[in-house]
């Protein structure tokens, strides 16, 4: 039986996907400013043999609902939002195998500095780093970074394609294999003939630089992407090694998975070159009744206003303009087009009331509720019917949600042969792709930047 990948999905914030649930007395997410919080988090995930902790991120604030930031500030809607990178090295120091996926917005990160930061973290983690490539959806983020508006949707991916070519040049092409000498007797640290300056003069970026870091264990970190629009899937098929998808319909997720893999083949990549993980929220109990009671309890702490503020920011539409039971209409904008289409052009209509109720605990992720056997059964069905490779498990109550999953669900998955019983050695890439080495495959576009 196919063994699945497991990633924990979170943000360095209080209100992540389950808006308002931070008020639950057992939730520790308000302790995110404590390093111990993240160290305990990493230890828990490694105990459960999770492949990685995936930290989403956003630039800006959810200020669309009601035309202001008030609802987001009042409800802690992904606010505060700390920088996700500083805790990574500390978490790596208390784990041996857990991978770390970090979100980096390429519209706002200078390529040279970002390449250096990722190489440094890949060194510090021993090659356990991944990069989630995003271009942002919030107009408030554009203003925060000194722009009048966010770049139009499809053009953002044009910027991203050029940005990636710079990253590959710095990580893969600036230092040849064998450039590092460490010859103490002759005072030669590296061979200048094998260390190259990257000269890029493009439409969106200009740069002349030598990558300041010696090659890290993976050189290029494992590449993640979550774009689900047509242009986003094209970008993912070209660049991504892992793609995150979300939704509650097996048939629609299966279509997305098939589409991404078909597009990847057009770039000369095999289906095994792209792993696809579905976002999921899991509520598990020792019995089904206990799990249902937990779900009802968690929902009592959810904030409808905060849920709508979060959804409005993602859609780029002020949902406060709608009566609670009026269906939302499609509006073309440069926010999350996939979410807009899912909520307005599907088989059923969504109203603000329905969003506040159905998305209170899981946003647009699938939700699995039951005892350990039922959860494992449903996960197996998703893998069989959609051909996904694993799940991105979002926390609800921290750490209760994940500790329950580790203690109850992981053993069931292992009994069925669906999940590993021990970590494989090697880098994050070698763990995710068992037949690979630490470097990107020769079929990946990055390989063209290598010097021989």
Q: How would you characterize this protein structure?
A:
The protein is an alpha/beta fold and 452 residues long. It has one domain: TIM Barrel (Alpha-Beta Barrel). Helices cover 38% and strands 15% of the residues. The protein is built from 15 helices and 13 strands. It has helices at residues 35-47, 70-75, 86-93, 111-124, 139-144, 153-173, 230-239, 250-266, 288-301, 304-315, 337-344, 352-358, 372-386, 400-415, 428-432, and strands at 5-11, 52-56, 99-105, 129-134, 180-183, 188-190, 198-201, 206-209, 222-225, 242-245, 275-285, 366-371, 390-394. Strands 1-2-3-4-9-10-11-13 form an eight-stranded parallel barrel, surrounded by seven helices. Helix 4 (111-124) links the parallel strand 3 (99-105) and strand 4 (129-134). Helix 1 (35-47) crosses helix 3, helix 4 packs across helix 6 and helix 6 (153-173) runs parallel beside helix 7 (230-239). The longest helix has 21 residues, at 153-173. The chain starts with a strand and ends in a 20-residue tail after the last helix.
Write the layout of secondary structure elements.
Blueprint (H helix, E strand, L loop, with lengths): L4 E7 L23 H13 L4 E5 L13 H6 L10 H8 L5 E7 L5 H14 L4 E6 L4 H6 L8 H21 L6 E4 L4 E3 L7 E4 L4 E4 L12 E4 L4 H10 L2 E4 L4 H17 L8 E11 L2 H14 L2 H12 L21 H8 L7 H7 L7 E6 H15 L3 E5 L5 H16 L12 H5 L20
Parallel strand pairs: 1-2, 1-13, 2-3, 3-4, 4-9, 9-10, 10-11, 11-12, 11-13
Antiparallel strand pairs: 5-6, 7-8
Helix pairs in contact: 1-3, 4-6, 6-7, 7-8, 10-12, 13-14
């Amino acid at each position: 039986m196919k063994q699945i990948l497991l990633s924990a999905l979170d943000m360095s914030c209080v209100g992540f996907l389950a808006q308002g649930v931070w008020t639950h007395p057992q939730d520790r997410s308000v302790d995110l400013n404590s390093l111990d919080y993240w160290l305990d988090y990493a230890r828990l995930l490694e105990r459960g043999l999770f492949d990685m902790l995936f930290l989403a991120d956003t630039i800006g604030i959810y200020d669309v609902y009601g035309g202001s930031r008030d609802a987001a500030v009042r409800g802690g809607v992904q606010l505060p939002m700390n920088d996700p990178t500083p805790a990574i090295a500390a978490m790596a120091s208390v784990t041996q195998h857990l991978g770390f996926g970090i979100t980096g917005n390429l519209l706002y990160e200078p390529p040279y500095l970002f390449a250096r930061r990722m190489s440094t973290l890949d060194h510090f983690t021993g090659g356990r780093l991944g990069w989630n490539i995003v271009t942002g959806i919030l107009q408030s983020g554009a203003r925060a970074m000194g722009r009048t508006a966010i770049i139009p949707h499809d053009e953002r991916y044009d910027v991203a394609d050029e940005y990636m070519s710079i990253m590959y040049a710095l990580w893969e092409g600036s230092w040849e294999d064998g450039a590092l000498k460490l010859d103490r007797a002759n005072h030669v640290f590296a061979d200048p003939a094998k260390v190259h300056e990257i000269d890029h003069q493009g439409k969106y970026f200009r740069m002349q630089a030598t990558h300041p870091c010696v090659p890290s264990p993976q050189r290029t970190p494992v590449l993640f992407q979550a774009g689900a629009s047509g242009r986003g899937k094209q970008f993912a098929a070209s660049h991504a090694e892992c793609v995150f998808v979300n939704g509650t319909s097996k048939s629609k997720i299966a279509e997305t998975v098939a589409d991404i893999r078909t597009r990847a083949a057009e770039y000369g990549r095999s289906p095994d070159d792209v792993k696809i993980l579905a976002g999921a929220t899991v509520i598990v109990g020792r019995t089904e009744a206990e799990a249902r009671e937990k779900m009802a309890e968690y929902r009592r702490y959810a904030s409808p206003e905060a849920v709508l503020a979060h959804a409005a920011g993602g859609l780029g539409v002020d949902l406060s303009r709608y009566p609670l039971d009026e269906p939302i209409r499609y509006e073309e904008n440069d926010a999350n087009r996939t979410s807009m289409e899912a909520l307005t052009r599907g088989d059923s209509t969504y109203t603000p009331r329905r969003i506040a109720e159905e998305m209170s605990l899981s946003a647009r992720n699938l939700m699995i509720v039951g005892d350990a056997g039922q959860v494992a059964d449903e996960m197996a069905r998703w893998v069989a019917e959609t051909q996904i490779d694993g799940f991105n498990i979002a926390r609800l109550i921290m750490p209760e949600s994940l500790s329950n999953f580790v203690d109850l669900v992981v053993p069931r998955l292992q009994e069925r042969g669906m999940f590993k019983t021990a970590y494989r050695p090697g880098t994050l890439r070698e763990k995710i792709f068992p037949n690979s080495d630490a470097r990107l495959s020769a079929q990946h576009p990055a390989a063209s930047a290598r010097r021989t």
